[in-house]
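Regression check, PRP case 215:
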Amino acid sequence: MLTIALSKGRLAEQTLDLMEKAGYDVSAAREKSRKLILEDGKSGLRFILAKPADVPTYVELGAADIGVVGKDTLLEEGRQLYEVIDLGFGKCRMCVAGPAALKDKLDDIPNKRVGTKYPNITRNYFEGVKKESVEIIKLNGSVELAPLTGLAEVIVDIVESGRTLYENGLEVLETVADISARVVVNRVSMKMKEDEIKPMISKLRQALSEGEANT
Ligand code: PRP
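Current build output:
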């Protein structure tokens, strides 16, 4: 039996579509209910529906063998996992964003205040990569409000279509990382359940490459 942690929401749907294409029976996981564990005895798969930010925790600590989660969450959580497939969907960018007036002037502001839902990614980027100290203000959503209200000079956040930034008069100032959904595997499961996990990785890769060939 393999336990797969899905990120509740759109990512879960896209993951199930891909698994179906790869030949797995995921009908149990499609069940419309409020159940959080969906199990199918016949297929030998058990799905758990977790908050995206918790998926790496379930997988690192072995409560799930496999997880599907965005690279943003993996970077933020910094868990010890094997990242085995880039699924290519859930694509977006982690960016530093702010008023257009700050374009190319970001480095001129000392001790910037940065609003974000991703304090670890923000710290790694400014302090690790840019060697600059910043004040990180942890927010829980609607992060674009921070530069608009004077709470912070800039934000670090996900940009997908760019519409939220545009409609709030903000712009991408720098790109921190490219994001997409990834398959992660618990390090012990990879060895102990190799017979089930390795074929699953191959089948998913195959289904992905067939999908690419058809586009
Ligand atoms: C995310 C992100 C941006 C927005 C980007 O927010 O934090 O605000 O989507 O998407 P766009 O570039 O296509 O406009 P989410 O919808 O998760 O809500 P939140 O503000 O509560 O974080």
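Comparison notes: Residues 141-144, 157-164 surround PRP (CB under 6 Å). The chain has two domains: 2-90+180-213, 92-179. No diff flagged against the previous build.
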